[in-house]
Amino acid sequence: MFLHTCPIFFHDYIYPMTKITYITHENKSHTVDVQNGLTVMEGAVQNDIPGIDADCGGGMACATCHVYVKEDWLDKLPKKEDGEEDMLDMAFEPKTNSRLSCQLTVSDELDGLIVNIPSKQT
């Protein structure tokens, strides 16, 4: 959890955090807390996770935030929309568990999510 004090009312706000694990192609694991409401891509960028380029900034206009989602998490994620499927066709070595991390919004339900990063982004 991230605690923030409002400077006007001196009231504490708690931002729920979710643990996401990013595994690089070199098999290095990075488990970080990501604020709920952000995307898995934003969590990677904010925490300097290597291998997530995010060239379009989350606009689903590229495939440089491509990840492989651990199989047991696939049913817990929202279904891919057509635009995401189209972008994944341009990704490096897409698989059935490929997702664009910019399309995965972090919530309590994703606590413990594990994603693998491909060897390169295209």
Explain what the structure shows:
The chain is of the alpha+beta class. The protein has a single domain (18-116), classed as Beta-grasp domain (Ubiquitin-like (UB roll)). The protein is 11% helix and 27% strand. It is built from 2 helices and 7 strands; from the N terminus they run ββββαβαββ. The strands form 2 sheets. The chain has a 5-stranded mixed beta sheet. Strands 1-2 form a two-stranded antiparallel ribbon. A hairpin with a 5-residue loop joins strand 3 and strand 4. The longest helix has 7 residues, at 40-46.
Quaternary state of this entry equals single chain
Number of domains: 1
What's the shape? globular
- Helix/strand-derived class? alpha+beta
User: In DSSP terms, counting alpha (H) and pi (I) runs of 4 or more, how many helices?
Assistant: 2
Mean pLDDT value: 91
What is the CATH top level name?
Answer: Alpha Beta
Ends distance: 34 Å
CATH topological fold name: Ubiquitin-like (UB roll)
Strand residues, percent: 25-35%
Q: What is the CATH superfamily label?
A: Beta-grasp domain
Tell me how many strands there are.
7
Largest sheet: 5 strands, mixed
Helix content: 10-25%
Unreliable spans: none
Order of helices and strands: EEEEHEHEE
Looking at the overall shape, the CATH architecture is: Roll
